[in-house]
């Protein structure tokens, strides 16, 4: 009865359009109240959900992404990518994917990257004759890969909830799968553009000089070196790395490029605070739902049923992939982690799966959900900025979806795609 109330009330509120964070918190509170577990535990769960030192990384990296976006780094990365790819059919679409991958090493938020890349790429892609739904689909899918390329908010949250997989190890594990996912996306993106003769209008424009473009983009790309290099050699922790990224971004924007003025700081801080508040609110209120799940012993029977289902190791893994693909279309990644990790981690431990590798698989599935309708946060942002309807993107989203699922299969079949880098970096 209580379990039905917990999930039923959450689903009803989702259908009614209640924000996810509020729906999770209210459903968890209702279940706790009817089970007589003590409503006083609700504020405690809210507090303990976000009272974790590593979560300080989130607002800092969000602020770093805002600073790098305002500093003009994105435009310099576009010019550099254009120097590499050139002009012509499908070129701008490929450039959008490459730029999203480059930006992913600065800010680990998919929606933030989708907004930044749309801002610098969408106008020129529209002028080149690309359909707006195609533009939104490409950029949303490309931005989804950024939650694997460190720094990543999703990987940080996973490491907080699963202490056996530290943030440094998760960052290293996400490098190859995230890069592979981005490169794999280029194939369907370019094929679709060639098939539908997209982007031919700008084929006559000259390619920017390579070395000059590289020099202009080098300082922005060096942010990745600072973050990953400092973590690799133990110079600073992930939280300190986020602060270093903010300081470096301000140095570029205010001193080197001089594109950020003192009066711009307030608006950037407000924007970063709003985004961070949304993320942390989801974490805090989802913690109430997660506490209700664990206290009501809802998770253990489900985990035991899956483990003893007779499907075998790969059958269970296939079941989880299908389940997460479906759930990811309705829930954001943070909610999925907080709600499902108490169920998924015991299953992973029962089969002796490496928890770092398992975290990469889960994050890949969350990336798929970020651009798969109907609940696709990246696609929502891209559609709003390109002025198209989400339902018009379905025909274009299908091929990137299949491509990323193939990447998931590759990481499952060859675990070293995720585990080789952490071993080499000593994590």
Automatic annotation (TrEMBL):
Key words of the record: Cell inner membrane, Cell membrane, Membrane, Plasmid, Transmembrane, Transmembrane helix, Transport
Pfam families associated with the record: DctM
Domain of life assignment: Bacteria
Signal sequence segment: none
Localization per Swiss-Prot or TrEMBL: Cell inner membrane
Transmembrane intervals: 51-68, 80-103, 109-126, 138-158, 170-193, 214-235, 241-260, 272-294, 314-343, 355-376, 396-421
Oligomeric and partner information: The complex comprises the extracytoplasmic solute receptor protein and the two transmembrane proteins.
Function field: Part of the tripartite ATP-independent periplasmic (TRAP) transport system.
Stated name of the protein: TRAP transporter large permease protein
Record organism: Azospirillum lipoferum (strain 4B)
């Amino acid at each position: 009865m209580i379990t039905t109330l917990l999930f039923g009330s959450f689903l009803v509120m989702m259908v009614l359009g209640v924000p996810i964070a509020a729906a999770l918190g209210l459903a968890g509170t209702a279940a706790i109240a009817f089970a007589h577990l003590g409503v006083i535990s609700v504020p405690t769960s809210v507090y303990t959900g976000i009272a974790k030192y590593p979560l300080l990384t989130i607002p800092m990296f969000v602020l770093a992404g805002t600073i790098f976006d305002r500093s003009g780094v994105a435009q310099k990365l576009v010019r550099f990518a254009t120097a590499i790819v050139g002009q012509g059919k499908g070129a701008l679409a490929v450039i959008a994917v490459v730029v999203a991958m480059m930006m992913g090493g600065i800010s680990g938020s998919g929606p933030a990257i989708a907004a930044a890349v749309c801002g610098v790429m969408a106008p020129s892609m529209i002028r080149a004759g690309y359909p707006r739904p195609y533009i939104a689909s490409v950029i949303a899918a490309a931005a989804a890969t950024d939650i694997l390329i460190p720094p990543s908010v999703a990987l940080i949250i996973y490491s907080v909830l699963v202490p056996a997989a530290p943030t440094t190890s998760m960052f290293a594990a996400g490098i190859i799968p995230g890069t592979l996912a981005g490169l794999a996306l280029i194939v369907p993106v370019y094929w679709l553009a060639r098939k539908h003769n997209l982007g031919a209008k700008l084929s006559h424009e000259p390619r920017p000089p390579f070395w000059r473009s590289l020099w202009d983009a080098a300082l922005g790309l060096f942010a990745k070196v600072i973050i990953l290099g400092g973590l690799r050699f133990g110079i600073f922790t992930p939280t300190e790395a986020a602060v270093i990224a903010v300081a470096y971004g301000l140095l570029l924007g205010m001193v080197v490029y001089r594109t950020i003025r003192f009066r711009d700081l307030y608006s950037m801080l407000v924007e970063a605070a709003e985004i961070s508040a949304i993320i942390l609110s989801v974490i805090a209120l989802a913690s109430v739902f997660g506490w209700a799940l664990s206290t009501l012993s809802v998770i253990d029977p489900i985990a035991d049923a899956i483990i003893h289902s007779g499907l075998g190791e790969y059958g269970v893994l296939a079941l989880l992939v299908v389940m997460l693909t479906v759930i990811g279309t309705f829930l954001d990644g943070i909610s999925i982690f907080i709600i499902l990790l108490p169920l998924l981690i015991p299953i992973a431990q029962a089969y002796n799966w490496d928890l770092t590798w398992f975290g990469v698989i889960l994050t890949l599935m969350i990336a798929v959900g970020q651009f798969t309708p109907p609940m696709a946060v990246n696609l929502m942002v891209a559609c709003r900025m390109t002025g198209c309807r989400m339902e018009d993107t379905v025909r274009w989203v299908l091929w990137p979806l299949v491509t990323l699922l193939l990447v998931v299969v590759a990481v499952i079949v060859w675990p070293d795609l995720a585990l080789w880098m952490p071993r080499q970096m000593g994590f």
